[in-house]
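Q: Could you fold this chain for me?
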Amino acid sequence: MKAKLTKLPKSLVELEGEIPEQEFAAYRPRAVAHLSEKVKIDGFREGKAPEAVLVQKVGEMAVLEEMAELALEEAYPKLVMEHTLDVIGPPEISIVKLGIGSPLGFKIKSAVVPELALPRYAAIAKETLSKKEDAEATDKEVDEALEELRKQRAIKKEGEEKPLLPDLDDTFARSLGQFESLVALKAKLKENIGLEKAARAKEKKRVEMIGKIAAETAGEIPDLLVESESEKMLLRLKGD
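A: Sure. Below is the predicted structure, expressed as structure tokens.
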């Protein structure tokens, strides 16, 4: 079995070839056995119907299609190895010739790992990561966080339109758990806000760095990889 390899845009390749008639015909017993197990025929136990009865039930084309599926399941990995292809994702298989007493003609299109010319990625990374970001929490941010905590602890009294907010004092701080004083609570809030700002700044730099590297990278990315990465990003966004 030989197949011609054609390189297509967007890191796709196409294998076009034929499985010789004799080699293809050798898959008929297995195809008949598979179909016999799947098709229910009155008067026969599962998998025990004679070939002639089965063909009369499902048609000759169904047998040929099952033979083609079995043949290409075995042929595709061999062709990948023969042409040393670094394939990704499932292939797109088309049957171009199928009949009794004829070879099996096929076309197989598959995405492969793209050949990319990387830019000055080390310099881009260094340049992006060297930017200083202010990750320290401001007094305003701490006050806003405290106000949010007060709202969460507000008490609604009967006859009053607005909920009663607790006083910002040591008692309020201790009501939140492990804090001995309001000063300790403010310190912890400032620390946590700073850590969150630092994490956001780090992620911002990472995205900026990847964007610059991608913009300067020469090569075509398969749609399969783009779709896969889009799904991952969507899942991350939902999780966030």
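A (continued): The first helix runs from residue 21 to 25.
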